[in-house]
Structures are given as C-alpha cells and as structure tokens.
Design brief:
There is one protein chain. The chain is mainly β and 157 residues long. Among the domains are: 51 residues; 47 residues, no CATH class. The strands form two sheets. Strands 1-2-3-4-5 form a five-stranded antiparallel sheet, with no helix packed on it. Strands 9-8-7-6-10 form a five-stranded antiparallel sheet, covered by helices on one side. It is globular and about 55 Å long.
Length: 157
C-alpha cells in the first residue's frame, strides 16, 4: 500500500497530492479537480477532519459565512469583486466575456453539450462524459444555448 507523500489520480481525473498512510489520504493533502478547483484538507485515515474548498476562480467556500448566491444576492463572484456593468450590458456568466458556445450546443458549466450526440466536452473540446437522460433534460431546461447568445464566428464562403 502507498505511504508517504505522493500523487494519486482518481478515475474521474481528480488528483490527490499529499500524505498517504496504508493506502489512504492521511495528513495534509489536496484534491485537485480537472477544471481547476481544489479541496485542501487535513485527513485522518481517508476522512477529512478540516478543510477548505476553493473554486476555479479563486472563490473560497466558507460553510459558516457563505454569502455567495444565497438567494438574496445573485451576483457572480466577478461582480462582487469588480462591481456591476453599466445598465443595459448583461453579464451572463462568471466569466466575462463568456465562452462562445458552438452552434447547436449548450454551455453546461464545465463545458459544451451537444444534444444530438449527447456528449459533453470541456472548453478545449476534450471529451468529458456522455450525458444520461436526467442530465440531458436538465441541460435543455436550464443552460445557455448557442442560438440565444453569440455563437462562434463562421466565415462566409
């Protein structure tokens, strides 16, 4: 079994970097998401005893004082840090400007979804997963569509 300091990549692509004991996370370590977020924690035999999650954009989750998207304040984190845009200029995502959605696809937060192939790819067009029926319906119901916003430019023939 693994012991000492090491790196371990889970089947989901998430990577653990830190101390291991008897094949378990033990001591200081961090789980790093493929998308960039991470959970830094103190582990005891595979169980986190204290830790903090940091999102890709640098926003730190705080269970006690969580004020972000709480139902009363619906600003994106970049709006909290940098302020609102002038009236009439919408900010549709936390990224500004938002990612350009390929024609016929949806922006599902971690990448683009093509409802014809039912495949989700990351923003660099690498395969992430096949959507099941539940995710497919959720994306169609809630996510930004290419035909509602600016799509990628296609040169005229």
């Amino acid at each position: 079994r693994m012991e000492g300091f090491g790196y371990y990549t889970l089947p989901t692509g998430t990577q653990y970097r830190g101390s291991l004991w008897d094949g378990m996370f033990h001591g200081k370590g961090q789980l790093l998401s493929r998308r960039g977020g991470g959970y830094r924690a103190l582990w005891d035999r595979g169980v986190p005893t204290q830790g903090k999650y940091t999102f890709t954009d640098g926003l730190e989750y705080d269970e006690e004082k969580w004020l972000y998207c709480d139902g009363y304040d619906r600003r994106f984190y970049t709006e909290i840090c940098s302020g609102f845009k002038p009236p009439g200029i919408a900010q549709l995502t936390n990224l500004d400007p938002p990612k350009i959605i390929p024609e016929g696809c949806y922006d599902c937060g971690d990448g683009f979804y093509n409802p014809k192939t039912r495949v989700v790819v990351d923003y660099k067009r690498n395969f992430l997963r096949n959507a099941d029926d539940e995710e497919h319906e959720w994306i169609l119901r809630t996510c930004r569509k290419a035909w509602d916003v600016t799509t990628e430019h296609k040169p005229k023939p």
